[in-house]
């Protein structure tokens, strides 16, 4: 069976834009990887590459949201990873947000590593 893509799907894909990508050097402190400001309605998703984590390394990924405009950041989700990690790429599942989204990383054990990431948004 062959599935042919139609024009409406192409329009949907064009609404997805690159939000942020790069590398971040861990320091032991909680570091902001991504922060979306208040008032931009969007869906954010992306990937974090934990390939560099070795035995003895521990990394925590935290996600914060604001429930109301101008409100305080509230911890929404947290995951911990002990190296080595397989599969090494973590998919940050699409999250709708309106009042702000913050994603942080913190390496709590081991030799500090450099972590690569890429995020997208659909507005």
Description:
- With 123 residues, the chain is mainly beta.
- The protein has one domain: Sandwich (Jelly Rolls).
- Helices cover 7% and strands 55% of the residues.
- It contains 1 helix and 8 strands, in the order H-E-E-E-E-E-E-E-E.
- The protein has one helix at 7-14, and strands at residues 16-25, 31-36, 42-49, 58-65, 74-82, 89-97, 101-109, 114-122.
- A 4-stranded antiparallel sheet has the order 1-8-3-6. Strands 2-7-4-5 form a 4-stranded antiparallel sheet, with no helix packed on it.
- A hairpin with an 8-residue loop joins strand 4 and strand 5.
- The longest helix has 8 residues, at 7-14.
- The chain is globular.
Descriptors:
123 residues; mainly beta; Jelly Rolls; 4-stranded antiparallel β-sheet; 1 helix; 7% helix; globular
Task: Describe how the helices and strands are arranged.
Blueprint: H1 7-14, E1 16-25, E2 31-36, E3 42-49, E4 58-65, E5 74-82, E6 89-97, E7 101-109, E8 114-122
Antiparallel strand pairs: 1-8, 2-7, 3-6, 3-8, 4-5, 4-7
Main sheet summary: 4 strands, antiparallel
The gross shape turns out to be globular
* Count of separate DSSP helical elements: 1
State the strand order across the main sheet. 1-8-3-6
Which structural class matches the secondary elements?
mainly beta
Distance between the termini: 33 Å
Number of domains: 1
What is the beta-strand fraction?
Answer: over 45%
Catalogue the unreliable spans: none
Rg calc:
16 Å
What CATH calls the topology is Jelly Rolls
Compressed to H and E, one letter per element, the order equals: HEEEEEEEE
The helical percent reads under 10%
The first-level CATH class is given as Mainly Beta
Which CATH architecture would you pick?
Sandwich
Count the strands?
A: 8
Mean pLDDT: 88
């Amino acid at each position: 069976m062959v599935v042919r893509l139609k024009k409406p799907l192409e329009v949907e894909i064009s609404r997805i834009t690159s939000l942020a990508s790069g590398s971040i050097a861990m320091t032991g402190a909680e570091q902001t990887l991504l922060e979306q400001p208040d008032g931009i309605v969007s869906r954010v998703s992306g990937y974090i590459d934990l390939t560099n984590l070795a035995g003895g390394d521990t990394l925590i990924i935290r996600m914060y949201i604001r429930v109301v405009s101008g409100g305080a950041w509230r911890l929404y989700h947290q995951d911990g990873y002990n190296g080595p990690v397989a599969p090494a790429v973590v998919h940050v599942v699409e999250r709708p947000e309106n009042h702000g989204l913050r994603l942080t990383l913190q390496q709590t054990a081991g030799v500090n590593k450099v972590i690569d990431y890429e995020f997208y948004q659909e507005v």
